[in-house]
Amino acid sequence: MYLSRLTLSRKPDIAALGQLLEPEHDGRRMDAHHRLIWSAFAGNHDARRDFLWRDMGRGQFLVLSPREPRESALFEEIDTKPFEPDLRYGDRLQILLRANATRTVTDADGRKRHRDVVMEALHPVPKGQRAAVRMEVAQDAGRQWLAGQGARAGFEVDAATVSSYRVAEPRRNGPRFGIIDLQGAIKITDPEAFLSRVAQGFGRAKAFGCGLMLIRRG
């Protein structure tokens, strides 16, 4: 795996595309960034997305991928390094994670649906009162969701805080989904399972900048 830092080119001809590459609308910006990152992995048009990415702001992106990104006129020189953490049982890490946190349920007709954990937790609250308790509900739902992820991905949660929760609509009249920003500390219980899951990403909406867990020792 490779971890790359991509920085949007500051050249005048690229800067002139500013409103296309960096739309003001949050959802449209996610869609534009999704297409922008694809430009660094151009090739077979039938290829499936095999990378995770996160918008770091100010035209910078972090990308985790099984292949190195290609040079692109849209970006400055791409900084790429191997992603090969040496982890052991009991190691403690600080994490940042932006995710579309969902749980899968099976309806009576056998169809599987993915339910946003925060939206689901807010559902019993009267509509006029949801805004006031949204972050409180997101804190609890986010921590529970992360703990569930850890049980299947080789880590335990020592601490977790939800710094933001918002609903995005990347494409006009398309599906809307929640985005939760988590930060905290975890303990590794199965290094192999953990690194395998980091490579796959957490949650859904990975094409739109969700799912990449950033880690550091601490």
Q: Can you characterise this structure?
A:
It comes from Dichotomicrobium thermohalophilum. It holds the Pfam family CRISPR_assoc. This is CRISPR-associated Cse3 family protein. With 218 residues, this protein is α+β, with helices and mostly antiparallel strands. It is 28% helix and 33% strand. The protein is built from six helices and ten strands, in the order βαααββββββααββαβ. β6 and β7 form a beta hairpin. The mean pLDDT is 88.
Question: Main traits of this protein?
Answer:
218 residues, alpha+beta, Alpha-Beta Plaits, 2 domains, 4-stranded antiparallel β-sheet, 6 helices, 28% helix, 33% strand, globular, CRISPR-assoc_prot_Cse3, CRISPR-associated Cse3 family protein
Give the helices and strands, then pairings.
Layout: E1 2-7, H1 12-15, H2 18-21, H3 26-38, E2 52-57, E3 60-65, E4 79-82, E5 92-99, E6 102-106, E7 112-116, H4 117-122, H5 130-153, E8 155-168, E9 177-188, H6 191-200, E10 213-217
Antiparallel strand pairs: 1-3, 1-4, 2-3, 5-9, 5-10, 6-7, 8-9
InterPro entries: CRISPR-assoc_prot_Cse3
Organism: Dichotomicrobium thermohalophilum
Protein name: CRISPR-associated Cse3 family protein
